[in-house]
């Protein structure tokens, strides 16, 4: 009985062994034998190839190579090679036969790549180790010397000579661009390795500014090469600070605020900038000296703000950019970052007024222009431009103009839009909502004459802006302004009319009233509620910020002066409008600049 069990066990073991041997044969031995047959076929085919093409045989220490693809194409091998493991085709481009002269004979080396099965022959090129980084950045016109190769090591031949590495490529440091240097090395079997070093020749903005100014400050009235576009709007470069960073200020006055509301208004403006622009801003300390009237010609500052993202220009900034005149003066009355005392701060204005002075004091409760200034990283890369108004500097890292098909509500305040014969500027954007825009000029009829209106409201609160009250300025704009404007791209949306207890002040509304309308008067405190006269004379237009005194009304002169007059002296004023652009409005062409505004469709 025991012998019978042992016999069965022996038979079972023999069967198991036979199965294992069979599997080993089919899975390992047979594929290996097949693979070696392929190698032998390749070698014989290569020998025939070089017998027929004898001139291609190597001389000296050289090596010649023929790829499997050539042996296929020229019919030296008839049948395709397939991997014995999975049936996939062996690589015709990675597989090759190399030949080298060995005395009076030739020695052949076969490398066949069939996926998991590869010939046991040296087929990898040496490792090249560079001095320095594989990607380098150098400044325009900076001297460049290639750091070269540190070492070359092969897995079979060991350490190779560095001087045998082939180096190709040139770098023109006088031209911004990306250049490539290529390093090539071979081992003893002519296996090749090629690596590249990328050299980026860049122009940093601080270098350009330094070349364009003698003292690091753009001076005089005729500074015409200090324009830079940021966040879709035009700015002017003031100069370099002590750290090599670039101080910039808006080209135009961007809005109005009472001095006491300045910080919160500047924060509102800062948040309106594109995220890409905000990343370029470096925190800086800004001059806030308390100055006497007798000390307004100073170019030194002794008191500074804490480090902050954004502020306004100071008397010192104005003086440092001044020769006889300075480009920093606008046609508006702009706050400066200096006080006379707690009740009065300084403003700047271009025109020769107030005893021929251009810097004078205003009560801090008054509403004047705001011209923000901030500092950008001096190492920011310059992409294009020559600093002129029509070709301003453009930074590589800053926001790009909107492409065709981009929704307008995905763009940024300050950019320009053209709708028929009117140019508009973006005031506020919110994704998936209508875009608040403001016309850059007053309304005109078909002959180009100004459209004017008078507030003839009869209700008790006629001094409050009300689009629903007949005779009110708001009513005229809501119902009559559309006669002079193409409203195809505009939609109705909700506005909040501010009502004040005493004086008009930023963030000091007693209450607001909601109305739904398509066209409406500007809010004094909206961004970009300013436009330059450009020599066209004084214009005055209505705003929605009426006082609550029941005896007077408010309008704006385009020099940035807020005017409040008794009702008895009311006359007709021009009409400038804001509107809501449909949320599906998209960009067709344009770059969003004043000279190349976005043309839109919906």
Largest sheet: 7 strands, mixed
Strand order of the largest sheet: 17-22-15-14-13-24-23
* Relative strand content: 25-35%
- The domain tally reads 4
The helix-and-strand class reads alpha+beta
Radius of gyration based on Cα positions: 39 Å
The total of beta strands comes to 38
Q: Average pLDDT across residues?
A: 88
Helicity range: 10-25%
Q: Which shape, going by the Cα principal axes?
A: elongated
Oligomer: single chain
Uncertain spans: none
How many angstroms does the end-to-end distance come to? 96 Å
Count helical runs: 7
Account of the protein in words:
It is a single chain. With 602 residues, the protein is an alpha+beta fold. The chain folds into four domains: 15-118, no CATH class; 127-202, Sandwich (Immunoglobulin-like), CATH 2.60.40; 206-376, no CATH class; 401-601, no CATH class. The protein has seven helices and 38 strands. The strands form eleven sheets. It has a seven-stranded mixed beta sheet with strand order 17-22-15-14-13-24-23. Strand 23 and strand 24 (393-395) form a beta hairpin. The mean pLDDT is 88.
């Amino acid at each position: 009985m025991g012998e019978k069990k042992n016999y069965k066990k022996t038979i079972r073991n023999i069967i198991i062994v036979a199965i294992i041997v069979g599997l080993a044969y089919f899975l390992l031995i047979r594929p290996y034998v097949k693979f070696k047959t392929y190698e032998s076929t390749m070698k014989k085919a290569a020998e025939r190839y070089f017998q027929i093409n004898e001139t291609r045989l190597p001389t000296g220490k050289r090596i010649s190579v023929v790829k499997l693809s050539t042996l296929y194409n020229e019919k030296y091998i008839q049948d395709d090679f397939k991997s014995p493991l999975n049936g996939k085709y062996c690589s015709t481009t990675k597989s090759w036969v190399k030949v080298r002269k060995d005395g009076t004979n030739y020695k052949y080396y076969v490398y066949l790549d069939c996926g998991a099965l590869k010939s046991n022959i040296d087929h990898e090129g040496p490792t090249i180790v560079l001095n320095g980084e594989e990607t380098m950045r150098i400044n325009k016109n900076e001297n460049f010397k290639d750091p070269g190769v540190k070492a070359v090591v092969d897995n079979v031949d060991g350490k190779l000579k560095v001087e045998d590495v082939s180096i190709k490529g040139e770098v023109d440091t006088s031209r911004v661009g990306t250049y490539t240097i290529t390093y090539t090395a071979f081992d003893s079997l002519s296996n090749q390795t090629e690596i590249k070093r990328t050299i980026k020749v860049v122009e940093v903005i601080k270098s350009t500014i330094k070349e364009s100014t003698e003292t690091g400050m753009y001076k005089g009235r005729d500074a015409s090469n200090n324009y830079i576009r940021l966040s879709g709007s035009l700015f002017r470069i003031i100069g370099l600070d002590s750290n090599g960073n670039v101080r910039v200020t808006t080209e135009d006055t961007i809005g109005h605020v009472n001095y006491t509301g300045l910080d919160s208004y500047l924060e509102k403006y800062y948040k309106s900038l594109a995220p890409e622009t905000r990343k370029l801003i470096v925190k800086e300390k800004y001059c806030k000296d308390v100055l006497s009237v007798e000390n307004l010609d100073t170019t030194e500052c002794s008191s500074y703000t804490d480090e902050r993202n954004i502020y306004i220009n100071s008397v010192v900034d104005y003086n440092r950019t001044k020769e006889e005149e300075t480009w920093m003066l606008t046609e508006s009355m702009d706050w400066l970052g200096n006080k006379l005392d707690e009740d009065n701060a300084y403003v700047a204005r271009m025109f020769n007024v107030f005893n021929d002075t251009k810097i004078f004091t205003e009560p801090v409760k008054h509403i004047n222009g705001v011209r923000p200034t901030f500092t950008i990283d001096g190492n920011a890369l310059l992409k294009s431009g020559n600093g002129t108004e029509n070709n301003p500097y453009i930074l590589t890292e800053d926001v790009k103009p909107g492409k065709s098909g981009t929704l307008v509500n995905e763009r940024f305040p300050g950019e320009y839009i053209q709708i028929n014969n009117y140019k508009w500027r973006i005031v506020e954007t919110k994704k998936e909502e209508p875009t608040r825009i403001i016309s850059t000029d007053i309304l005109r009829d078909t002959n180009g004459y100004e459209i004017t209106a008078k507030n003839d409201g009869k209700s008790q609160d006629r001094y409050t802006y009300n689009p629903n009250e007949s005779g009110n300025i708001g009513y005229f704009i809501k119902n009559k302004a559309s006669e002079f404007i193409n409203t195809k791209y505009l939609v109705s949306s909700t506005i909040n009319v501010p009502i004040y207890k005493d004086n008009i002040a930023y963030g000091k509304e007693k209450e607001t009233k909601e109305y739904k309308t398509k066209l409406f008067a500007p809010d004094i405190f909206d961004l970009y509620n300013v436009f330059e006269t450009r020599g066209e004379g004084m214009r005055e237009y209505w705003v929605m910020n009426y006082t609550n005194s029941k005896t007077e009304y408010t309008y704006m002169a385009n020099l940035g002066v807020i005017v409040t007059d008794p009702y008895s002296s009311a006359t007709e004023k021009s009409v400038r409008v804001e509107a809501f652009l449909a949320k599906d409005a998209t960009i067709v062409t344009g770059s969003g600049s004043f000279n190349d505004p976005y043309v839109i469709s919906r």
